[in-house]
From TrEMBL:
It comes from the Bacteria. GO terms for biological process: chemotaxis; signal transduction. It comes from Alsobacter metallidurans. Residues 20-159 form the CheW-like domain. This is Chemotaxis protein CheW. One of its GO terms (cellular component) is cytosol. PANTHER family: CHEMOTAXIS PROTEIN CHEW, CHEMOTAXIS SENSOR HISTIDINE KINASE-RELATED.
Length: 162
């Protein structure tokens, strides 16, 4: 399964508004997370990775995506929820970090939704390992969706991969 960025960008193109942000929502464990759709290059089914020596524990390894070598991060482990168990619904969200691409292993992609910028709430300050990977929170229906700061998600192991 692979969903190209062009398809994501065209999703609901008529619903654009200055006060709106389009996000891709997905599940890790039973929790809902999201990233800006503009950062998503594609969504693809799981494929085995090639492990890297001395990589951080949440770096599963690398994959070859049409000639580009991409590090794949176990988002469940990165969030402190233990290692992911690969299933048929597991997917890799390939995100564009500007100078490079990265893959995030998640349990399942949920939806692409538009949210009002004014509905974003700051993430609470939580004592942890020293980096804040949450950018903001938004309530969608009965659940709270945590928007990830992609640079913070992959920052810890960037020196290993570059």
């Amino acid at each position: 399964m692979s969903l190209a960025y062009d398809t994501l960008a065209d999703y609901g193109a008529n619903a654009s508004s200055e006060a709106m942000q389009r996000i891709v929502t997905f599940k890790v464990d039973s929790r809902s997370f999201g990233v800006d759709v503009a950062s998503v290059r594609e969504i693809k089914g799981w494929q085995p990775t090639t492990p890297l020596p001395n990589a951080a524990s949440h770096v599963l390894g690398v994959i070859n995506l049409r000639g580009a070598i991409i590090a794949v991060y176990d988002l469940r482990r990165r969030l402190g929820l233990g290692a992911s168990v690969i299933s048929r619904s597991s997917v890799v969200i390939v995100v564009d970090l500007g100078e490079r691409l990265a893959g995030l292993l998640v349990d399942a992609v949920s939806d692409i939704v538009d949210i009002q910028i004014s509905s974003l709430r700051p993430a609470p300050e939580i004592a942890g390992e020293g980096d804040d990977i949450l950018q903001a929170l938004v309530v969608k229906g009965d659940e709270v969706v945590a928007l990830l700061d992609l640079a913070s998600v992959v920052r810890e192991s960037a020196t290993v991969l570059n």
